[in-house]
Specification:
The protein is α/β, with parallel strands linked by helices and 287 residues long. It is built from 12 helices and 7 strands. The chain binds adenosine monophosphate and manganese (II) ion (MN) (3 copies). The site of one manganese (II) ion (MN) has 4 residues, from loops.
Length: 287
């Protein structure tokens, strides 16, 4: 079993990097990547845990970008010490922190009174994500589920007005590559695009340097998996897969390695070698 999309307490996951690695190993995962949102902070801890558990480890990140719509770009084999990448992560952390007060005010306008402390109790690393707001809203009884919090308040057009700034896809792809990594489009089906507009977007992303698609994903139907796999073949992109595990508190139906109801099945043992080989040398990036 392989799972190249996992979140930890360093972003909006429930469990520490070492705990996620150990849970994955206990479930029989042989290769994994930690892909926290806009941070590389969990990678050192995860790497040590993976070594001890005899699990192959690929350092990763997931960057949210925007070009009229929100997309997520995964970066594999990025160097966590890369300076520009680190500066980027620091900037996003600051953007999140500034956004926190805006979200509290926005929710108050909707008669939801939460304190910063109520939200921060769910964010173990003080990196505040919408997930933590959703958990606080459930905890205080304003909504029944995390999903409801998003549908009603945190993923609405009104919310978009107060959301943080996000980089362009081209910037994130380039940054991942400059940090020695390989850029992959995460959970393509979540874009909700039909074939023609999706391929149009994909072609633009490939122009910007995209190298892979997450074909195997927790919510993909067999038909969707096959569709993205055929596009990966057609465009010469790598096909990756992962669960997007966050723990049981915000996405309880998603399990490490197997996704939802066991429908995730990613077994390409050569994916690490393929990703490693796809890294672009810095001299090539400059030219
Ligand atoms: P942020 O980057 O802080 O804006 O938060 C985005 C996070 O919210 C994503 O990483 C998802 O894990 C989570 N999220 C977004 N939409 C939903 C949803 N509809 N239901 C549950 N979680 C969501
Ligand atoms: Mn998340
Ligand atoms: Mn994502
Ligand atoms: Mn994710």
């Amino acid at each position: 079993m392989i799972d190249l999309h996992l979140h930890t307490t360093m972003s909006d996951g429930e469990h520490s990097p070492a705990a996620v690695v150990n849970m994955a190993a206990a479930r029989g995962v042989s290769m994994l990547s930690i892909t926290d949102h806009d941070t590389v902070d969990g990678l050192a801890e995860a790497q040590i845990a993976a070594k001890n558990a005899h699990v192959q480890f690929i350092p990763g990140i997931e960057i949210a970008v925007s070009d009229n719509r929100e997309l997520h770009i995964l970066g594999y084999y990025i160097d966590p010490a890369h300076q520009e990448l680190q500066a980027f992560c620091t900037e996003i952390r600051q953007e999140r922190s500034l956004r926190t007060d805006r979200i509290l005010a926005y929710l108050a306008q909707h008669a939801i009174d939460l304190t910063k402390e109520q939200v921060l109790q769910y964010a173990q690393q003080n990196v505040v994500s919408r997930t933590h707001f959703a958990l606080a809203m459930v905890g205080a009884g304003y909504v029944e589920t995390v999903a409801d919090a998003f549908t009603q308040y945190l993923a609405t057009p009104a919310f978009a007005q107060i959301d943080r700034k996000k980089p362009s896809p081209a910037y994130a792809i380039r940054l991942i590559q400059q940090a020695g990594g390989v850029a992959v489009l995460a959970h393509p089906a979540r874009l909700g695009l039909e074939n023609h507009p999706f391929q149009h977007l994909l072609q633009q992303l490939i122009q910007a340097g995209l190298q892979g698609i997450e074909c195997m994903y927790s919510t993909h139907t067999p038909r969707q998996t096959q569709y993205y796999q055929s596009l990966a073949d057609q465009y010469g992109l790598l096909a990756t897969g992962g669960s997007d595990y966050h723990g049981s508190r915000s996405k309880p139906h998603i399990h490490i390695g197997t996704g939802i109801n066991g429908n995730l099945c990613f077994t390409d043992q050569n994916i690490a070698a393929k990703l490693w080989a796809a890294r672009i040398s810095s001299s090539k990036l400059r030219s």
